[in-house]
Design a protein that fits this description.
The complex is a heterodimer of chains A (168) and B (101). Chain A contains six helices and no strands. Chain A is an all-alpha fold. Chain A is globular, with a radius of gyration of 21 Å. The model of chain A has no long low-confidence stretch (mean pLDDT 84). Chain B is mainly α and 101 residues long. Chain B has a single domain, classed as Helix Hairpins (Orthogonal Bundle). Classes of the chains: A mainly alpha (168), B mainly alpha (101). At the A-B interface, helix 1, helix 2, helix 3, helix 4 and helix 5 of A face helix 1, helix 2 and helix 3 of B.
Chain lengths: 168, 101
């Protein structure tokens, strides 16, 4: 049963990620991202990280995808027309594909990964809180500071373009 | 066939490369942002899988930080895209090459 669920959620995540990459319409791409997130959240539940699945859906599906859809609506972009790709892009794409093949082959043949040792019960909220407020106390503070800076940056950015509009 | 760490790592690698190809091949800045998010999510899958199969919590805690930074990045990035659209009237990357000349 767990195997079937893994393959189901993995297929959901991959197919909708492919939809993000190939769809012409940005709205379809955003909805594909949403479906892909649902698949990844299912995988997190299978990995006994239900809290992370919840937070992923809350932050990404609730905030990020909604923000994307809002901006798409605001900008009113036309579907892009396909043009021949520049040569550098093709070289980079070939290199990326080759790197993936090498990575997967070495993962399958060379890597000595510990197979067992999987916990039967997942971590609870208490475990997360212990880690976040002891070992990772400094990163938590830094991330909070980063959020503050990002908020200030967004305010400054939207203010500046207002002044540019008044000038022109 | 039991699903183990290798399956999750393979899935994570394929998802990352899908996002990578999206960043390379797409022309719309918004879709490029979505593909960047896909790459971040692929990295989180690998972290959570490592954490689960090694019975530690560090990978899971890192996912919290990645989520926070992704949210901040999207907010700033979309503000830049909106400012760019106000200035230029387009979000297609081939039209945004003024730094080249």
């Amino acid at each position: 049963m767990a195997n079937f669920l893994f393959y189901f959620f993995a297929l959901l995540a991959l197919v909708s990620a492919a939809l993000v990459v190939v769809s012409k319409n940005p709205v379809n791409a955003a909805l594909g991202l949403l479906l892909s997130l649902v698949g990844v959240a299912g995988l997190f539940v299978l990995l006994h990280a239900a809290l992370l699945a919840f937070v992923l859906l809350l932050v990404y599906a609730g905030a990020v995808v909604a923000l994307f859809l809002f901006i798409i609506m605001l900008l009113d972009t036309r579907p892009e027309q396909s043009k021949p790709l520049p040569r550098m892009t093709l070289i980079a794409a070939t290199l990326g594909g080759a790197l993936l093949v090498v990575g997967v082959l070495s993962l399958n043949q060379r890597a000595a990964l510990s197979a067992g040792g999987a916990a039967v019960t997942g971590p609870t909220l208490k475990h997360y809180a212990e880690q976040l407020f002891t070992t990772y106390l400094l990163p938590v503070q830094l991330v909070g500071f980063l959020l503050l800076i990002a908020m200030l940056g967004v305010i400054v950015l939207s203010k500046k373009s207002d002044q540019a509009e008044e000038r022109s | 066939m039991i699903v183990d760490l290798q399956h999750y790592l393979l899935l994570s690698a394929v998802l990352f490369v899908l996002g990578f190809f999206g960043v390379l091949l797409r022309k719309n800045t918004l879709v490029i942002y979505m593909c960047l998010e896909l790459m971040l999510i692929a990295a989180t899958i690998a972290l959570v899988a490592f954490s689960h199969f090694n019975d530690t919590l560090d990978g899971n805690v890192f996912v919290f930080f990645i989520l926070t930074i992704a949210a901040a990045e999207v907010a700033v990035g979309l503000a830049i895209v909106v400012a760019l659209f106000r200035q230029r009237g387009t979000v297609q990357v081939e039209a945004l090459n003024h730094l080249r000349h």
